[in-house]
Amino acid sequence: MRKMTEVRVEIAKRLDAKREAESPPQPAPIYDDVFAAGMAALDGFDLIADPSSSRADKPRTSFYEDDPTQADWRVREAEIAALPRPASLKPLVKWIGGKRKLVPQILPHLPAFTGTYWEPMCGGASLFGALLPRKAVLADINPHIINLYRQVQWQPDALTYWMKQYREDYEQSTPEQRSSWYYAARHRWNNSDRAGKWNSEGEEAATCFMFLKATAFNGLWRENKKGEMNAPWGKYTRISLPSAKQIIEWHKALKDVDIRLGDVTKTCEPKPGDLVYLD
C-alpha cells in the first residue's frame, strides 16, 4: 500500500505537468505585430539590474538624478514624514499562504514583546501590517518580494510612477493588445537573466513583478523548473496595483525596517525580548 505522501507527490507532479501543458508559451501568431510593439515598449525598462552594482546594499535615488543636489527628494521626504503613521495596513501583494484573513485570530495569541519583531518568511507580511512594530526585520527567500519591499522603502515615488504607467498602458489597450502586453512583459522578465542567475532589482523590476501578478490568471505567480514565470494571462480588463497612498503608507511603515533576502536559518537572529513569527 502506497503512503499518502507518495500519492500526494504523484498528484502534484501530474497537476504541474497539466498546468505546464496548458500555459501558452507565447502570444497567438495573429498578435505577432502587437507582441513586437509590446516588446518595443519594454525596451527602455531595465528589469534586471547589473549584479555587480552596489544598489542592493544602499538606497537608490535614480528617480531624482536630474537634480544633482537631491533637493527635490529631501523635500519630498519631509512631506512624507509629516504624514500620519497608519494604525495598520493591508498587504501590498496577494501571496500564497498569506495570513490576512487569519490575523484577527492570530493577534490575541501573540505575547507582549519589547524587542524586535522578526518575520523571516514574510511573504505578503500581513501580520507585520497589522502590528506595524517600530523595530522589525522582514525577510524572505524570494528575491522578487524582497525587491518590492526595498523599492517601497527606498523610492516610493518612482515606484508609484511606474505602477501608473503600467496600469494606464494596459487598461487603455484593446483585448488583443492586453494579451500581447502581458506576454511581452513575461517574455522580457524571463529573458532578463544576467551573470547566470535569476535576480530582480530596481523599481522597474518591482513594478513588472506586480504587473505580472495582477494580470496573470487568478493572480498566480508560478514558475517552472527553469525558474521562468509561466502563468497564463488572466484576460482582465482592469488591474489592481497599489495606489500612491498605499505605497506611501507602506513606505512610512518600512522606513526603519531591516529587509533581508535569504533563508530563515541565515536571516533570523532573535534575542531575548524579541518576537518571532514563523509560519
Helices and strands, with pairings:
Blueprint: H1 4-22, H2 32-42, H3 71-82, H4 103-106, E1 117-119, H5 126-131, E2 136-140, H6 143-154, H7 156-171, H8 175-190, H9 203-215, H10 244-254, E3 258-261, H11 264-267, E4 275-276
Task: Describe the protein.
This protein is mainly α and 279 residues long. It has 11 helices and 4 strands, in the order H-H-H-H-E-H-E-H-H-H-H-H-E-H-E. Strands 3-2-1-4 form a 4-stranded parallel sheet, covered by helices on one side. Helix 2 (32-42) crosses helix 8 and helix 6 crosses helix 10. Residues 1-5, 24-32, 44-70 and 194-199 have low confidence and may be disordered.
Number of DSSP strand runs: 4
Low-confidence stretches: 1-5, 24-32, 44-70, 194-199
Largest sheet: 4 strands, parallel
The strands making up the biggest β-sheet line up spatially as 3-2-1-4
Count of discrete alpha- or pi-helical segments spanning 4 or more residues? 11
SSE order: HHHHEHEHHHHHEHE
End-to-end gap? 32 Å
Derived from helix and strand composition plus strand pairing, the structural class reads mainly alpha
